[in-house]
Amino acid sequence: METVNIMIVGVGGQGSLLASKMLGHLLVQQGYDVKVSEVHGMSQRGGSVVTYVRFGDKVYSPIIDKGEADYIVSFELLEAARWIEYLKPTGRVVTNTQKMEPMPVIAGLAKYPENLVEKMQAKGIQVDAMDCLALAEEAGSTKAVNMVLMGRLSKYFPDIPAEAWQASLEANVPAKVLELNKVAFALGQKD
């Protein structure tokens, strides 16, 4: 099997590390050779965060270069656009439509770009955009955006059984918030 490259991008404090940990666990359980990078960027709240997840028969490096990502899973809209040059021409962006203003916008030095989904689509990029924050709130917590996104991503891997996704969710999410996260995952899977 050819190596599959997934970039998980977002802003510190959004739960991208838990998402990448769960995804790595899932793929190892499926028998793949998996490499998950540590965080690249500023992982404190508000800073840009990038994690690489690569899997296949044999993976030699955890790093994804420009033009190699099969999927970019983005917790925030501007982060999706920021990392787009890493996407393969046949790749797909799975993104939350939430907007978190970066410091230059907060300071009044720049404006948050408008129509980012449409701009990416105009370049021929496949974009699956949804309001993950609203779905996470529906599940019971704004902190469940990560599981909404993992639920959405699971739709693109039909060969991995639903039970395997659930088992990895159970193995990585604390028991006290497990049911809420299961609901968030299921909401992400809906069309």
Structural write-up:
The protein is of the alpha/beta class and 191 residues long. It has a single domain (4-189), classed as Pyruvate-ferredoxin oxidoreductase, PFOR, domain III (Pyruvate-ferredoxin Oxidoreductase, domain 3, 3-Layer(aba) Sandwich), CATH 3.40.920. The protein has helices at 16-29, 77-82, 103-106, 116-122, 132-139, 145-154, 162-172, 178-189; strands spanning 4-11, 33-36, 40-41, 48-56, 69-74, 87-96, 126-130. Strands 1, 2, 3, 4, 5, 6 and 7 form a 7-stranded mixed beta sheet that branches. Helix 1 (16-29) packs parallel to helix 6 and helix 5 packs across helix 8 (178-189). The protein is globular and about 45 Å long. The mean pLDDT is 92.
Draw up the topology in text.
Elements: E1 4-11, H1 16-29, E2 33-36, E3 40-41, E4 48-56, E5 69-74, H2 77-82, E6 87-96, H3 103-106, H4 116-122, E7 126-130, H5 132-139, H6 145-154, H7 162-172, H8 178-189
Parallel strand pairs: 1-5, 5-6, 6-7
Antiparallel strand pairs: 1-4, 2-4, 3-4
Helix pairs in contact: 1-6, 1-7, 5-6, 5-8, 6-8
